[in-house]
What we know:
Blueprint: E1 2-7, H1 9-15, E2 27-33, E3 45-52, E4 61-66, H2 71-77, H3 84-92, E5 95-103, H4 111-114, H5 120-135, E6 145-150, H6 152-163, E7 168-174, H7 179-183, E8 201-204, H8 216-230, E9 236-238, H9 252-266, E10 286-288, E11 296-297, E12 309-311, H10 314-326, E13 339-346, E14 349-355, E15 366-371, E16 374-379, E17 409-412, E18 422-428, E19 441-442
Parallel strand pairs: 4-5, 4-6, 6-7, 7-8, 8-9
Antiparallel strand pairs: 1-2, 2-3, 3-5, 10-11, 10-12, 13-14, 14-17, 15-16, 15-18, 18-19
Amino acid sequence: MAVRGLIRGVLLLCLWSGPGTRLFADELFEVYYPPSSQPGELVLGVTYTIWIPEGNAPLRGIIVHQHGCGTGACRGGATAAYDLHWQALARKWHCALLGPSYHQQDSENCRLWCDPRNGSDRTFLRGLEDLARISQRPELTEVPWCLWGHSGGGFWASLMQTLHPERIVAIWFRSGTAIEAWEKGEIPRPEVPEAAFRIPMMVNPGAKEREDARFRGAWTGAERMFAFYRAKNAPIGMMLDPRSGHECGDSRYVAIPFFEACLSLRLPAPGEADKSLKAIDVGAGWLAPYLSGEARPAQEYRDDSLKATWLPSPGVAQLWSQYVKTGEVSDLAPPPAPTGVTLVSEGNGVRVEWTAEADFETGLAGFVILRDGTEIARVPDKPIGRFGKGLFQSMSYHDTPEKPLPRMRYLDTTGGQSAETRYEVQAINSLGVRSTVSEAAGRGSRP
């Protein structure tokens, strides 16, 4: 095993040959396990990177962002812990954000890792133990998990919930579950404990998968998973993504609020003696027609409730109703304003640097740079949105930031600055809503 502890600026030099995201006073740690030839152990290598928010209070949970199958997905998973939007969720609930990255080639069978009984469960738990040790956060071995999985990552999560139902707050299955594989006899059928039917879950296929020869199984698997669990009154929903195929699209704009609602319902209060997760009252949730329509409180739902999508809160119900129709959500609230604006002379210009957090609901699309109250630039100039909305951290097929990760900085080479020149920065969320302006920084500022 190779272990690295990465803290603040050091991590940028250790991990990236190009620019990296500025990470405030937060910490990242990484462990790597090579392939094992021992029976029952993982035959593929894996790297776990974990982001821990600032503050010394005990962590309350771990948000696991698990990539799918193949070389591209594994590489995409390597940046999951650096995602500013998922970090906003983790920070709000004082949780760690974990991004596994398996070292699987396209020629290798994905089920060597995405079936956790083939060794990835054991390595995952070992990884938490080692990360707890090097980060000096012993609670990492005990706190509960939110599991987000794409494709093979959803396959993995659907089997993990049969192994560790008492540890799981909620699960989001983006275009992947294992249920069809075990129903067809392709993998051993797991024993599904009663506790697994009490975990809030959402299956989330893309509409284009329905007629896609390669990915149709993601659609039929979602249908089967939903029907199997909902028939037992499990708190599970189905969210069709009307715009996407197997890529993750903009599903994070509902997935993150879904986890927020489930964390609110299930986490014990800080300092509470009983550390077990709180039970979900399915009847206190909201229900909606299977694929689209308006949600309403479960007690007011008049159709067959065991065929209806279950939703944990009125807020998530509203977002779900919007998303299944348009593939978008609406939120006009402004994002948080940037902080810590500093100026540094660089060559024939002035380098402006700042820090910012992503808007919890709608992410972070970029920044407006103001000089003496007038806009002089945007960072980035034009956000790239190949697989969803254009964001400051350009989004990959796998719901992870593309490399190289951008830094929060801008070099003003237009000249004409004086001792009285002031710079300010505004954040822009994914809907184009601007924050208030940051505090101004003058030429006398220092980083």
